Amino acid sequence: MKEKKELFMLLYEPVHESFERFCKARAYGHMPFRDLMQDTLVIAFSKFEQLKQNEKFLYYLFGIATRLLANQRRKISTVYQNEIPESIHFLHAEAERKSEIDHLYKALSFLPTDQRDALIYFEIVGFSVKEIAFFQKKSEMAIRQQLSRGRQKLLVLLQEKKEYKNIMP
Length: 169
Prior knowledge:
- The protein has helices at 2-12, 16-27, 33-46, 57-75, 92-109, 113-125, 129-136, 140-167.
- It is an all-alpha fold and 169 residues long.
- The chain has 8 helices and no strands.
């Protein structure tokens, strides 16, 4: 058991930040990202023996998290609100930045799944097109097309919000 825990932590530590960014982007509007991370890690550890190749550990976590989100959407029809900030003493710049990030994640949630996932993997997690193609079992051209179409739709969604914001008092 101790060896299993040590190996798990050895594999997890280098991918923690990428995994956290993935969960923040994918969980937006569905559940608190920390809950998604925790649930994913519990399942990943309990089924750790099923991992065949250690170098695919991050993909293993992504797969579990994606299935958890799909199950959550099936079970719950209402959308969870974002976590309440732990401190209400934010500087104006920090509040504005959080608002922009929230809007970006909300806009991402309106994209088709393939486009949203490609953008999250590429722009937020930092994977290359080749890595995404390998992970999603698609051609690099298909991933580039998903990225391009996703960016175009995201731009439209973000511009709609900007126009709406300009007419608000």
